[in-house]
């Protein structure tokens, strides 16, 4: 069977080679015939035109030298009446016409211009445009004749190839049917294996069309495996119980991942999705791999989803503890530094204002000495809660900067707006009426604030912005405390 396949393959290649060679030979022959016809017709027409011009030049030279203008006019009329001329002009040495006549349409003509000489001295100019419309017709006929012959030859060869390859197609179809049966058998086997897994397993082609899906993945969206097959994987994920914003974000991410995986570029981090399951939210981690053919081209992409809800919750709790202050629950210094760097990078892109408010509780050491550290901790929590009235939840950040010092980072906020926010925070703390008997300036708790703002055109480092706000806070303390100073 192997020998037969090799023989069929070699004979097919030989027939194709012969057909291509014949087409090239016929095409080259037609081109040469057409080229020779064109060259011959053009040469004949040029020879006729040159002969006509030579005759006219000779007679024109004689008539002009003898001042026989009437004969020049008659020469022009006779030449025009003989036909084959689109325009003729016999001019004197100054360009004035002895005779001039022209057809309205000169598009199918070839123009000539010659000096009229008498005793090797120019005495005038002959301008002649020869009608070549009949030449163009002959050239078109020769062109289309060569095309017709070429097409006829190609059709004849195509017919022979069709007859030959028909038997080859029948043979290949039988072979394909056998291969399909084997593939179906392997598909059923792997499907049965995958159905035993509790993880979501989805196999797509290189463009995201689902080829295989296990029971766990299909039941997660309430459909059968047959219903999911053929869908694009992002359309399948739209059926997951998720809010619209998460779905749209997931679809965009997944399309990017599929496209990059097709190019052999796997994501650095797994893709995490969140699915509503009765009264809880499940976290699904998706990892991607690919299957390539012998040429290295990606044929299939394997998407595997694993339930990592417990690990994710533990990780989120750990990250929250790392980035948030254990006492007040707001962001800590580490989180503040990260957020400030990101905010400055965003500021450079959008060229908007960025304001930092540094806040210090006045005479807090005396407060702790007077009321004790436990009461001091309660005081810090109340001040941290008061900062919430001054920030936008999704845009700004309130952080415990250290000890009794807090920071409020306000994105897209200019200096004037930052002062309004600072006053709102101060008013909120005043409303709390936290007793502070050991304060030198008031009988209740007060705050000192320093504000620094980056304008839309500034490009400074995070430490520089902090230094500005700190300097303003120091000035506020020097100015008697319980006030706000703008850098």
Adjacency order of strands in the biggest sheet? 6-5-9-8-7
Please report the total strand number as a whole number: 14
Give, in order, the helices and strands: HHEEEEHEEHHHHEEEHHEHHEEHEHE
- Count of DSSP H/I helices: 13
Give the helix level as a range of percent.
Answer: 40-55%
Mean pLDDT rating: 81
Broad structural category: alpha+beta
- Gyration radius from CA atoms, angstroms: 46 Å
Label the overall shape.
elongated
Q: What about the largest sheet?
A: 5 strands, antiparallel
Descriptive tags:
22% strand, 487 residues, single chain, 13 helices, alpha+beta, five-stranded mixed β-sheet, five-stranded antiparallel β-sheet
General description of the model:
The protein is elongated and about 135 Å long. The chain has a 5-stranded antiparallel sheet, sandwiched between helices. A 5-stranded mixed sheet has the order 11-12-10-13-14, sandwiched between helices. Strands 2-1-4-3 form a 4-stranded antiparallel sheet, with helices on one face. It has 13 helices and 14 strands. Helix 1 (2-65) packs antiparallel against helix 2 (69-81) and helix 10 (364-371) packs across helix 11 (373-386). It is of the alpha+beta class and 487 residues long.
């Amino acid at each position: 069977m192997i020998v037969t396949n090799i023989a069929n393959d070699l004979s097919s290649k030989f027939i194709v080679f012969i057909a291509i060679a014949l087409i090239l030979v016929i095409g080259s022959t037609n081109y040469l015939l057409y080229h020779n016809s064109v060259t011959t017709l053009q040469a004949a027409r040029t020879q006729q035109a040159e002969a006509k011009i030579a005759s006219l030049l000779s007679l024109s030279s004689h008539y002009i030298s003898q001042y026989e203008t009437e004969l020049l006019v008659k020469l022009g009329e006779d030449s025009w009446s003989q036909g084959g001329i689109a325009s003729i002009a016999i001019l004197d040495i100054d360009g004035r016409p002895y005779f001039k006549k022209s057809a309205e349409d000169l598009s199918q003509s070839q123009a000539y211009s010659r000096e009229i000489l008498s005793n090797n001295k120019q005495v005038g100019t002959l301008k002649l445009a020869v009608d070549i419309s009949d030449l163009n017709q002959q050239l078109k006929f020769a062109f289309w004749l060569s095309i017709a012959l070429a097409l006829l030859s190609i059709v004849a060869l195509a017919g022979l190839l069709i007859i030959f390859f028909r038997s080859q197609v029948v043979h290949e179809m039988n072979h394909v049917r056998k291969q399909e049966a084997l593939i179906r058998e392997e598909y059923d086997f792997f499907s049965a294996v995958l159905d035993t897994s509790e993880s979501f397993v989805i196999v797509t082609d290189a463009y995201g069309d689902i080829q295989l899906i296990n029971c766990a993945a299909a039941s997660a969206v309430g459909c059968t495996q047959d219903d999911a097959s053929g869908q694009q994987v992002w359309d399948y994920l739209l059926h997951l119980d998720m809010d619209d914003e998460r779905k749209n974000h997931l679809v965009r991410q997944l399309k990017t991942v599929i496209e990059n995986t097709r190019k052999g570029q796997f994501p650095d981090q797994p893709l995490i999705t969140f699915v509503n399951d009765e009264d809880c939210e499940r976290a699904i981690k998706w990892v991607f791999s690919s299957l390539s053919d012998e040429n290295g081209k990606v044929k299939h992409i394997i998407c595997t989803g694993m339930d990592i809800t417990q690990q994710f919750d533990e990780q989120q709790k750990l990250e929250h503890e790392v980035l948030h202050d254990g006492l007040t629950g707001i962001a800590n210094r580490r989180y503040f530094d990260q957020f400030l760097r990101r905010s400055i990078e965003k500021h450079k892109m959008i060229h908007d204002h960025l304001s930092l408010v540094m806040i210090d509780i006045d005479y807090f050491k005396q407060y702790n000495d007077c009321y004790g550290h436990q009461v001091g901790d309660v005081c810090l929590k109340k001040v941290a809660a008061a900062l919430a009235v001054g920030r936008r939840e999704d845009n700004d950040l309130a952080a415990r900067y250290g000890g009794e010092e807090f920071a409020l980072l306000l994105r897209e906020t200019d200096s004037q707006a930052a002062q309004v926010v600072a006053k709102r925070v101060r008013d909120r703390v005043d409303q709390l009426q936290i007793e502070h008997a050991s304060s030198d300036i008031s009988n209740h708790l007060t705050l000192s604030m320093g504000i620094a703002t980056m304008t839309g055109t500034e490009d400074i480092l995070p430490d520089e912005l902090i230094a500005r706000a700190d300097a303003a806070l120091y000035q506020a303390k020097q100015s008697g405390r319980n006030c706000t100073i703008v850098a």
